[in-house]
Specification:
Strand content: 35-45%
Order of helices and strands: EEHEHHHEEEEEEEE
Largest sheet: 6 strands, antiparallel, barrel
Low-confidence stretches: none
Number of strands: 11
Radius of gyration: 30 Å
Mean pLDDT: 92
Structural class: alpha+beta
Length: 232
């Protein structure tokens, strides 16, 4: 049987209301009378103001939004959304577990660095230590994270950096997680940058090398996963 989509314009039954708010719903039925009957059975207490047959579901949605869908279509759509959200949650959790897994060697390096940092006095006036890893976020239509490790200090306000390699994993929605790997570097290149004390964060800071604009970096946190995206 060929069914027609009817848009039901309806309002509250309370005639004493100061204004009758018209909302919309849809029914698939063979006749206008059947559409009205179906709607009345589902929504007692609502007054049908107008019934409009439509032929194009897409045009109806552009005009009425979800009001162009039947209750069953809305329920199915929301069920699909919930299923998709649950799949995404599971995928993100799986990815976080993969990226967060550290080897014993990595943990030993972090413990050695933390102990050395706590015991030493740095010549840097902004509180930067050799071994510190700084992270910076940048990107217009995507989110990028870069990580740089301090390999030397020069004077009171200058640090020499090398870019860290990362452990990274993408999820299925073009986003993912990454974290820097201590003492592992992408290339031999070194970058000499000026350091400064950030009064807002009360922490040392510096600009991301080779990037225009004011993209600053702060100390990376061991164990934290940094979410990035590859959106076009």
């Amino acid at each position: 049987m060929n069914l027609t989509r009817y848009i039901i314009s309806h309002s509250a039954a309370d005639a004493a209301a100061p204004a009758r708010l018209i909302t919309h719903a849809a029914e698939l039925a063979a006749t206008q009378e059947q559409a009205a009957s179906q709607f009345a059975a589902k929504h007692p207490g609502r007054v049908i103001e107008r019934i409009t047959p439509v032929q194009d579901k897409r045009e109806a949605f552009l005009r009425y939004g979800e009001g162009a869908w039947t209750d069953e279509e809305i329920a199915a759509h929301r069920a699909r959304q919930q299923e998709q959200a649950e799949r995404s949650r599971r995928e993100h959790e799986r990815t976080r577990q993969i990226v967060s897994a550290c080897s014993l060697a990595e943990i030993a390096l972090e413990q050695e660095y933390a102990a050395r940092r706590a015991a030493e006095t740095t010549p840097n006036a902004d509180g930067v230590h050799v071994g510190d890893i700084f992270c910076g976020c940048w990107g217009y239509d995507q989110t990028n994270w870069d990580f740089y490790q301090v390999v030397a200090l020069r004077g009171k306000h200058t640090a020499v950096l090398r870019q860290n390699a990362c452990k990274a994993e993408l999820c299925g929605d073009d986003s993912g997680y990454k974290r820097p790997i201590r003492d592992s570097f992408l290339r031999e290149a070194e970058y000499t940058v000026r350091t400064r004390w950030d009064e807002y964060y009360k922490a040392p800071s510096m600009r991301i090398p080779d990037l225009s604009g004011n993209h600053s970096m702060r100390l990376a946190e061991f164990g934290r996963l940094y979410e990035y995206s590859t959106y076009d």
